[in-house]
Automatic annotation (TrEMBL), chain A:
It catalyses: 4 Fe(II)-[cytochrome c] + O2 + 8 H(+)(in) = 4 Fe(III)-[cytochrome c] + 2 H2O + 4 H(+)(out). This is Cytochrome c oxidase subunit 1. InterPro entries: Cyt_c_oxase-like_su1_dom (IPR023616), Cyt_c_oxase-like_su1_sf (IPR036927), Cyt_C_Oxase_1 (IPR000883), Cyt_c_Oxase_su1_BS (IPR023615), Cyt_c_oxase_su1_dom (IPR033944), Cyt_c_oxidase_su1_bac (IPR014241). The chain crosses the membrane at residues 54-75, 95-117, 137-157, 177-205, 217-244, 264-288, 300-322, 337-357, 369-393, 405-430, 442-466, 486-506. Pfam families: COX1. Signal peptide: none annotated.
UniProtKB/TrEMBL annotation, chain B:
The lineage of its organism: Bacteria, Pseudomonadati, Pseudomonadota, Gammaproteobacteria, Alteromonadales. It catalyses: 4 Fe(II)-[cytochrome c] + O2 + 8 H(+)(in) = 4 Fe(III)-[cytochrome c] + 2 H2O + 4 H(+)(out). GO terms for cellular component: plasma membrane. This is Cytochrome c oxidase subunit 2. Subunits I and II form the functional core of the enzyme complex. Electrons originating in cytochrome c are transferred via heme a and Cu(A) to the binuclear center formed by heme a3 and Cu(B). Belongs to the cytochrome c oxidase subunit 2 family.
Amino acid sequence: MTTLTDDVKDPATDDASHDGHAHDDHSHDDHHHHIPKGISRWLLTTNHKDIGTLYLWFAFIMFLVGGAMAMVIRAELFQPGLQIVEPNFFNQMTTVHGLIMVFGAVMPAFTGLANWLVPMMIGAPDMALPRMNNWSFWILPFAFLILLSSLFMEGGGPSFGWTFYAPLSTTYSGDSTALFVFSVHIMGISSIMGAINVIVTIFNMRAPGMTLMKMPMFVWTWLITAFLLIAVMPVLAGVVTMVLTDKYFGTSFFDAAGGGDPVLFQHIFWFFGHPEVYIMILPAFGIISQIVPTFSRKKLFGYASMVYATASIALLSFVVWAHHMFTTGMPVEWEKFFMFATMLISVPTGVKVFNWVATMWRGSLTFEIPMLFAIAFIVLFTIGGLSGLMLAITPVDFQYHDTYFVVAHFHYVLVTGAVFSIMAAVYYWLPKWTGRMFDITLAKWHFWCSLISVNVLFFPMHFVGLAGMPRRIPDYALQFADFNKWISVGGFAFGLSQLIFLALLVKACRKRGEPVSDQVWDGAEGLEWEIPSPAPYHTFDTPPQIK
Amino acid sequence: MKSLKCLVSTFVLLVSWFSSAQSAAERSDLNLRTGVTDISQQVYSLHMLMFWICVVIAVLVFGAMFYAMFKHRKSAGHEAANFHENIKVEIAWTVVPFVILIGMAIPAASTLDDMEDASKPDMTVLVTGSQWKWHYKYMENEVEYFSVLATQREQIENKFNKGENYLLEVDRPLVIPTGQKVRFLITSDDVIHSWWVPDFAVKKDANPGFINEAWARVNEPGIYRGQCAELCGKDHGFMPVVVIAKEPAEYAQWINEQEQIAVARKEEEQRLLAMNMSMDELMKQGQQTYNAVCAACHQPNGEGLPGVFPSLKGSALILNDQQAHIDIVVNGRAGTAMQSFSKQLTMSEIAAVVTYTRNAWNNNTGDLVQAKDVNALMQGE
Ligand code: HEM
Ligand SMILES: [Cu+2]
Ligand SMILES: [Cu+2]
């Protein structure tokens, strides 16, 4: 987020402090000191830092848009009865909220962080494929414009849930389905290009001496995530295409009347969908593994076991998909297989949590804002992980499935997990990006308001879920009324708290605040803390030597 | 360290919230219900077992973490130690959780075996979901009927006070005997639904074109309420499941009555075929049927939802083609949400609703459609 203003300069060389108009004077070999101005800088940029910034702002805007939809959902659910929106529109809100949060907020935010950080962490001058990098960002806004504009069609946007189960999404869906499919295709292409870029960069552009087992955890987790992306985004593309041809071109993949099977849809979708949830959490593990050692002033405990745990989580994630489908009616042997495999995943996940605690153990702890978010992550993500373990138990999952218990579970892992880790990351690296400390008072307000409201928002969802409230309903029976009121109040408070974050970010990008040192955080280690603050437009033109 | 204290007190608050939830573990607004079948009780015990294991793990992990946060903070002058590996510990915390998991998996697998064993039932009910109602068919008896939400629209729209069983009441509940193994065959006519009765720990998807099995042996007579659990379109939130469990003797009496009523209905329908009803009668009956059955999609004012459900007001098909109009109500239109109503409605009800939609909202065709016209169309095919 360095660069909302144009006065970015490259402190590495003195003469780079000329503004753009002076660049003609330079000889050709310092062409890269030229920073284009205005809109074309952002449209045409191939600089990993600029593209990272674009991704992060885009993700934040999508977070606010998807959050606004969540506010509509919570406003309707504030009381029993239909007050604000029609059921059909309610379903569009839940669907588009889910899609935007997953594909528009969390995934692009992680890609943005990868863009900023991976080259800086491995001592590379940029991403390996900078032009493709530009493309993979710039097709994203169009994907979401298409998705959002479908809400204004006659009959409205997609209303079949972010999981778009057939035949609700085929035979029984509206005409916006074609737009939905098209936009998911574009999102998928963007993700795949981002993933290829990360892999190629990590394999080819590490500085001399940066062996794989010396890479920072964030780089490791992103490397593994990128492989997951390449493996499953084509599966998503395949399944949306099958939806498209079933709806418009007379195929019957998911239609029993034509020899197909609606449950086949779910197998394909969740073969993508379960690795997808790890795509949204592995980079978070990487971030927490960077932050906790810094503020514990102690090396990460069990680095090697962290790497192996990440890899085994990724591998196991391909054999657990049907735990989302226990109620579809599977042979009991399959149910057992998927139950045991799912339970098994909790072992490497547990190892990660234990390692973080062991890193803090006998450290010298301080509690700056990134650490506060990291600690909140460890506690709240673990709560989400434990409810996930409960959900793995097939006989009990029959009771939990498709209730608010599940909504509570995945928001604990996605909001207090993935989203909190992204916020932790932004606070952690923001001073490096802007060269200034952010407004700590605002940050504290943001943290405490978010922490309290997010629990008022999501914790009672466990209760209404256990008591029997199904998910994706616009109206509910009277015994759920009290908790739903609290949930909505928590929701509004959490939504408002994010405006504090917005204010803080705008302020930070305007270069307010105290200048920071190169290391920024006492205790921070790694290549990105050895370059100047703010990080120059070009870094590591000559690769650093890693001892 | 102020923020540290805040963090810890938030944590304590969370834990006490959790544990106060536990002192009220029996409260059905906070926790799973124990239910009324042996299976549902096993499921409840499994749930509580899992819950307590999770609580213990959480307390240990968070306890260690908060201890470190207090004791090993820099502001208390703690210096960082230098270790970053310990093979023994690392093996221990891989193996111990694994063993705990095995301890969970064994009882879970045995309960699962029981749940999935629907063999040797005493009786069977075919449960069919369709947008947005359930249909029950007793396989051993000549009894079948639809079960539709009974909550008034005015309650949903906040014009009337909401009743005690708001959204969890139907016109005709499923009735089953206690003490017998009742097998449910579950399927769907359109999209995927999911038939869920929490008190039986039964939730099974209704997949169009396929049949799933589930079963329950209910121990106590009573009224048990659940809901459709799989997103199935606009009124997914409005298709409850209500099951009444009666003592076997009472049940036998009930099912006999139902069989007689079914026979009487058929005779009545034949009798009505020979009769002509007046416009007033047809319109009155038609409006009732329309509001109960069609309004969910085509809306009470007949205007539908643009782009989703067509308007019947001023519809070219209605205004120009009476046969096609009867036909679409009788047979539905394949591949759309417009389903066949020949099973759900009697011929005279269809006649009435067709007459109503041909004349309401300024459609004013003036046509009268009688049960025999509907019969003619059904026979003619
Ligand atoms: C701003 C705070 C948020 C609030 C108040 C909120 C609220 C909700 C609620 C109430 C639902 C359930 C809707 C229903 O089942 O009827 C829901 C669904 C969902 N949310 Fe959120 N949410 C928030 C943030 C997020 C974030 C950050 C993510 C992802 C990272 C997310 C991902 C999802 C997903 C995937 C669904 C499922 C959508 C579906 O059922 O198809 N939410 N959210
Ligand atoms: Cu999964
Ligand atoms: Cu349904």
